[in-house]
Amino acid sequence: MPHPPNTPLGRFGVDTVTVDPARCVGSIPAGGVVNPLTGTPTLAVLAMLVDHIGGVVNHIRRGPSEWTVTSELVLELTPDAVDRVAEAPDEPVFATGRPFGPRTGTALSRCDLTHRDQLVGTATVRSFYIDAPDEHVPYPAATEDTTRPTDLAEMMAVRVGTAEGGAQLLHQLPDPVLNNTLGIVHGGVSAAALELVGAAAVNAGRTDELLQTASLRINFLRPLRTGPDSHYRGAARRVGRRSALSEAEAVDTDGRVAIMARLTAYR
């Protein structure tokens, strides 16, 4: 089931294939996507797919008066993931999600990511259960000329900024299409942006032999609301010849850290 382009999932081209208590499947186009900070290939959009499929697995286990909020997302990629997707860029990446253990006040799901039936990654999504909201914010009305952008910066409504000390910066511009039904930036959008700034931070100054993202761990602390000062910032914590680590954060319009991430990369 393709999603309308006036929704976060539709903006990213996500297709939900199966929704079942035991197994959820979806896909996303990931080939030919480049990091706006570096101009190099990226699989950051897989964070959107994982957030969606892993979140759905947890969401359908909710009670009649419950809702789910993602608290953690972990993405692990194989060393050849970028190259494998680049070999057939028109083929989407699929995520197959399943429950991982019992649900209590929280739930955990696991996703396997495949491209042309070859494993390129695995991921987990942890959600906790809250009281179901009384109202949901509607998506903007779709029009006949509503189309899905293919440029990643336009797709995510981000603008490259400048920061001191070698940090990498993306401004998150307000765009109601990228909000979820709670009226905040969709978690998959933020997760993808944190990968972009984290990967750019460890590759700052490199022109070849780039470090490829191996793992991304994200903690959602509070809702991310956009405004003039909302942004994502990534900074390298250790960069070696063959491995590196960076930390990234999403900052809301009031200057509060809403989401934190840690990224490791290898060559």
From TrEMBL:
Task: Kindly list any coiled-coil regions of this protein.
Answer: none
Question: What are the Thioesterase domain coordinates in residue numbering?
Answer: 183-258
* SUPFAM superfamilies (alphabetical): Thioesterase/thiol ester dehydrase-isomerase
What's a single GO MF annotation on this record?
Answer: acyl-CoA hydrolase activity
Keywords of this protein's UniProt record, alphabetized? Hydrolase
Q: Which InterPro entries match?
A: HotDog_dom_sf, PAAI_dom, Thioestr_dom
Please report the name of this protein according to its UniProt entry: Thioesterase domain-containing protein
